[in-house]
Known about the structure:
It is built from two helices and no strands. Helix 1 runs antiparallel to helix 2. It has one domain. It is elongated and about 65 Å long. The chain is mainly α and 91 residues long.
Amino acid sequence: MNPNAVLDIAMQGLMVTAKLAAPIVVTALVVGFAISLVQSITQIQEVTLSFVPKAAAVAVALIICGQWMIAELVSFTHVLFDKIPQLLGGG
């Protein structure tokens, strides 16, 4: 196995990780920003006011995107398993 193959697999892994994390992170960012905006307008500074809606929104995002996320992860795993023979030099 050469260093280029290792770097290629690592880069693919990072890209899959970014694709899988994006819906969750973007959802938390948008909801957090909206709640912070409401808190600054109303001057209510309660920690649970920002945590609970963010947790609920992330749960909804996981429910909506979960099937796609699992499919992407399974696809990436299949690609890695298919590459094993050529990485070991057998084909």
